[in-house]
Amino acid sequence: MDNGKNYTKGIFYIFCFVAFIMALAVLKVTATFILPLTISILFSFIFYPFVKRLTKFRIPWILSVLIVIGVTGFLFSIIANILVTSCKSIVAAYPRYEARFTTVYSTIAETFNLPFDENSSLFANLWNSLGVRTFVQNSAISLSNFLLSGAKVIFLVSLFILFFMMEMREMKTKIKTAFPEEKLNRKIIYITIKTISDVTRFISIKFYISLLTGFLVGIVCFSVGLDFPIVWGFLAFVLNFIPNFGSAISFVMTTAFSIIQFYPVGYKIAIVGLSILIINSVLGSILEPKWEGNDLGISPFLILVSLTLWGYVWGFAGMILSVPILVIIKIICENIDMLKPVAALIGNTKRSKSDKKEKDQN
Predict the structure, then answer these.
(1) Which of 126, 153, 161, 217 has its CA 20 to 30 A from that of 97?
(2) Euclidean distance between CA atoms 28 and 130, whole angstroms
């Protein structure tokens, strides 16, 4: 019997692996619809506690949902305006930096034997020597497509959130009706509540770490006199939502700009580069993985794997959604007997023990 049971488990795990690969292929092909739906569900999880708090003040559920969505939309519009204003400031200041751009590029061209024409502008040299034409054309096409579809996606996500939040109000009743067996409906309700709680906690952790990173980077840039410190702080804040790679991109871009502005004054460049490296190392590589790992019960290695996988499936958005999706997968696996080994592999020992005690109490 034991051998048969183990044989059945092996077939089950192989089947799950194949089904998972097929699901990823479907998700990649149907990203136009599934990605906005996934984003709206995760946002609904985040909004749910705030909506519940508003209802305690005798505000109707639908009005509470509209208030939370409206406030979020207002904050997003502020961020978008800051981003647009920052981009305009950089473009307006470009003539001041073209000479420095050219000086730095001439040094690079001399070092790596790249063609350089002193009588041509920086863009002309880059255009001719580094194959920028194809990159610019592809970027322009991608940007145009994004701008055309952006408004539609935002509207679609808002509608999904509104109607899904309305459904969440009656979720417990629907679960009890659909699954009359008390033990089963209690388990499903537990999974739902646990998912909402852990996803909300992850977003909170990520937000505060990113905010602190952006604030410290902005302070460093301001203290050494680097132009546009708000831009570099905001860039560090946004890119930090992408684990590991985002902070590296922020470091490279900010340090590169400091080279352009301060060259050949080396000590200011070193201050900017080393300070950002220390901030990213302490907050991103030490504090954040430990905080997320202990709180969410996820292996830091699996976080990196999830980042790479979902980045391949859904691009930039997939990178941001990778850890919340991993949290949801772990919670579901913890509550299905055959998939508990998968949950153990995803999690860490300390959190797994505390989760078991918490589940036993429920």
Answers:
(1) 217
(2) 32
- Taking only the tens place, the pLDDT of each residue in 257-296 is 888 788 777 888 899 999 999 998 888 777 776 776 555 5
Rounded Cα distance between 321 and 347, Å, is 18
CA–CA distance, 84 with 235 (Å, rounded to integer): 12
- The dihedrals phi and psi of 305, each to the nearest 5 degrees, come to -65, -45
Chain centroid offset of residue 239 CA: 8
The CA distances from residue 330 to 89, 294, 326, in Å, are 44, 14, 6
Q: Is the pLDDT of residue 183 over 70?
A: yes
CA distances (Å), 357 to each of 125, 192, 330, 354, in order?
65, 18, 16, 5
CA-CA-CA-CA torsion sign (353, 197, 153, 71)? negative
260-264 contacts, C-beta under 8 A, 24 or more apart = 260/97, 260/100, 260/101, 260/104, 261/97, 261/100, 261/226, 261/227, 262/226, 263/100, 263/103, 263/104
Q: Which residues have C-beta within 8 Å of that of residue 213, sequence separation ≥ 6?
A: 236, 237, 240, 247, 279, 280, 283, 284
Residue listed under structure tokens 């999974």? 191
Terminal alpha carbon distance of the chain: 33
